[in-house]
TrEMBL record:
Species of origin: Robiginitalea aurantiaca
Pfam families in UniProt: Band_7
Name used for this protein in its record: Prohibitin family protein
TM region(s), chain numbering: 7-29
Subcellular location: Membrane
Topology of the protein relative to the lipid bilayer: Single-pass membrane protein
SMART domains given in the database record: PHB
Residue span, Band domain: 25-189
PANTHER family hit by this protein: PROHIBITIN, PROHIBITIN 1
The entry's keywords: Membrane, Transmembrane, Transmembrane helix
């Protein structure tokens, strides 16, 4: 067997080392992700340059890349809070958020990859306790829930706006009241609804009575005007017109002119 050339062994070793170095240096960042570069022999976390975007990257093998998800995410939280009158309320909420891309290096340096547990969730709890503490259970059960949700969002956003987190929305999924309080509120709402319905019926009946009075008054005024305009002469003329029309009928009859009490014709036959 022929011996390998003297240069072959070092070449093979160099190729192996190069493959190892490339494999250690090659970084692939997936869709919706970004990388924070850490320079071991430099300034550490790189914060004055944009994060590494999606795709293939080559970095020095002694450096590190920390990958973060930068698209919108959702976090859920169940918490117990107190209403304005001190009652325990269970609140289920979720938040839509994402780390701010341009501040990803600072987020990694100051907060770390556990920023959701360290920053976001405590902020949601604090905001929820503060907001719910200003409302009664009746408010939480009614249509004011949307207003409460908006207030929690605004207060949470104010807390995290300087923490390199972009808060997109806070959603109140469910509000659970003590059973006795819930039943009492439902009874009260039912009574209020029945009272409103009764008042509506009274108003409707009053309007109908007013309509009937106006209609009756109109008819009475019309009859009074008509009666005032009907003189004896007009009545006699109307009677004569009606008698003439009857006399033109083909049916046999006897008409006596001027024999009535008022001088109107009399019809004596109708065969």
């Amino acid at each position: 067997m022929d011996k390998l050339p003297k240069i072959a062994l070092p070449t093979i070793l160099l190729i192996i080392v190069a493959i190892i170095l490339v494999s250690k240096s090659a970084i692939v960042i997936g869709s919706g992700e970004a990388g924070v570069l850490y320079k071991t022999f430099g300034e550490g976390v790189v914060i004055d340059e944009p994060p590494l975007g999606e795709g293939f990257h080559l970095v020095a093998p002694w450096n590190k890349v920390f990958i973060y998800e930068v698209r919108q995410q959702e976090v859920f939280e169940k918490m117990k809070v107190l209403s304005s009158n001190g009652l325990d309320i269970q609140l289920d909420a979720s938040a839509w958020f994402q780390p701010r891309f341009q501040d990803l290096g600072r987020l990694h340096q100051e907060k770390g990859d556990q920023y959701k547990e360290r920053i976001l969730l405590p902020a949601i709890r604090s905001a929820a306790r503060s907001v719910v503490g200003r409302y009664t259970p009746e408010d939480l059960y009614s249509t004011k829930r949307d207003a409460i949700q908006n207030e929690i969002f605004e207060e949470t956003k104010r807390i995290v706006e300087d923490q390199y987190i972009q808060l997109n929305e806070v959603l109140v999924r469910d509000v659970t009241l003590p059973a006795t309080i819930k039943d009492a509120i439902e009874r009260k709402l039912k009574q209020e609804q029945e009272s409103l319905e009764y008042e509506f019926r009274l108003v409707s009946a009053d309007k109908e009575a007013q309509r009937q009075r106006i209609e009756a008054q109109g008819k009475a005024d019309a009859n009074r005007i008509l009666s005032a305009s009907l003189t004896d002469k007009i009545l006699q003329d109307k009677g004569i017109e009606a008698t003439l029309k009857l006399s033109e009928s083909p049916n046999a009859k006897v008409v006596v002119v001027g024999s009535g009490d008022s001088g109107l014709p009399l019809i004596l036959g109708n065969n």
